[in-house]
Structures are given as structure tokens and as C-alpha cells.
Amino acid sequence: MAYDVFRVTGRYMTGTEVTGYHLINLTNGASLIANRERAIAMVGRGQVENMRIQYNGDDVQLRGKGINLTKLPVYDMKSNSIRGQNNAEPQKQKNGLGRFTIVKRVMYKTACVGYVLTDASGKEVNISREKVQDMAIKGLIKNADAQRYTPTGQTNSTIVIRGVGCDLKSLPVVVIDKNGESFDTSAKSQNTFVRASRLNKAGILYTADGLKRTFESGDYIIVLPTGKVTVLKAADARSKLSPSQNKTALCDNSMAKISEYCIEFYGMKKCKLSASIVLGWQVVEIHISK
């Protein structure tokens, strides 16, 4: 018999006694409150991925697996609130232990196809846009609401996800392509594939936000997975760029705003970039660190 798998995201306590655990179903996001005996039975069946059983003689103790259970949020049964939380904040559920927070957007080309969420234990999960819409409607998302919106001139409404206390468009982005490659703008260090061209003359790169970047002969102009165009100095290129046999790069799907960038070589006319120009550049591997 196949059992659903859960993840513990919080504890229920009365005073100093742990009376239960908040579990999240990894298949459908549903919440389950399990008392100690039920939790032990579920952990014994391998149903809770981040909990384990420790035996001390006849005593059975529940421990975290990869986490410290004592660090999880605690719902106080006496005060009916989460300890240490500002409970003036309205909540759609009885408590916030089963709620998620959107921390990143997942983008394919120019479309948001999903989100990266964290649960109360801090684990990140990738969820499709449609599933997040459903979760927001049920009040399972802490920093987002789902609203129905009818575009002007249309009769059919659509569901849009709006940030609560945050601007979702300002969140970090994970760029993906159809080949399974990804680029996380919030990662401290990662390798990815970009389009690059070595510049044989000095000049100026005019960026989409109106800024200017000067470059020298030998520098590189590169297009990042997000579609941003920038200059990489020759000295940095020697340590950050590596040859690649790849025929495609993540940025190939992010050319929507490429025409907002222009290059001007000194003594020559300004040239607007285009997808056809950039797709003719070589694909290289780049190491990006913050």
C-alpha cells in the first residue's frame, strides 16, 4: 500500500509539552495535525520525510531529519497563537503553520510558469503557477492572494496572483528553458551558459535602463539568462569564461527586450541589438558569483 508523504512544519505545545505536529502533504499541500502517537506511526511507515524515530530503551523519541524540531514554529494551544509572531496580522487559517511563502518566480521566456515557495520549516519547493493559484484561493499562501480579473473588452475572467505586503515582480527569478537548464538570480555562486562576443574596438554599451557602460578592445559583451546585456572586462573574462560545445543558452528565450540595448563603437554609428545578432554570438560557460 502506498502512503502519502508529509513534511513537518511546526509543533503544537501546551506549556512545555509537545501535544502535536503540523504536517504538510507533499502531493496536494493539505495540512494534517497529528498527535504524538499518530506522528510516531507515520514516521515509522516512512511517511514524514524530515522526521525520524530515536529509541532510548523503551522510550520512543521523535527527532528531526535534516532539521532541528525545536527550531520549528510553535503554536501555543493556550493562547491560540504562534509564539513570537505578531498576531495582529490577519490569518486565513486557524494558524500559520500550514502556510507557504512565495520567495521566487519561475520564468520561461517572458511568462511566469511557477513559483518557489518555502514552508514553515524553511524548505523550498517548486510549484506550478496553476497550483499556486489554487493554494492562494484556499488561503495557503502567506504573502499572496488570488483575485479574479476581467480584462477590458473581454467577458472571460482570469485568476491573477497578487502580492500581500510585497511586490511579487521584485522577487528573485529562476529562469528555465525547455532543456531543463536553470539560472537562479539569488544564488551566491553558479555556472551557466550565455551568449558572448569579443569586442575588437572600444566603445559604449547603452543599457535598457538608460545607463552607459564603456568597454575596451578585448572586453566581452554578454547576454545573461535574464536577457540583461552587460560588459565583462578582458581580465575578468579570462577567469570567468570557458569554451562550450552547447548550441543554445538560457538567454535565447529572453530576447524580448534585447532591442532596448545599443552598441556604439567610437567613430561609428550607434547599432541597436537584435535577437538575430545575439543568436549569432558564441555560447560560453560563465561562472557567476556575488
Describe the structure in your own words:
The protein is mainly beta. It has four helices and 23 strands. The strands form six sheets. Strands 3-2-1-6-7 form a five-stranded mixed β-sheet. Strands 10-9-8-13-14 form a five-stranded mixed β-sheet. A five-stranded antiparallel β-sheet has the order 19-18-15-23-20. A hairpin with a 5-residue loop joins β18 and β19 (229-232).
Condensed summary:
With 290 residues, the protein is mostly beta strands.
Biggest sheet overview: 5 strands, mixed
Average of pLDDT: 89
Strand order of the largest sheet: 3-2-1-6-7
Query: How would you describe the shape?
Result: elongated
**What is the number of beta strands?**
23
* Beta-strand content bin: 35-45%
Give the class from helix and strand content and strand pairing.
mainly beta
The topology string of helices and strands comes to EEEHEEEEEEEHEEEEEEEEEHEEEHE
Poorly predicted spans: 87-94
CA-to-CA gap between the ends? 47 Å
Q: How big is the Rg?
A: 25 Å
Q: Give the number of helices.
A: 4
User: Which range best describes the helical content: under 10%, 10-25%, 25-40%, 40-55%, 55-70% or over 70%?
Assistant: 10-25%
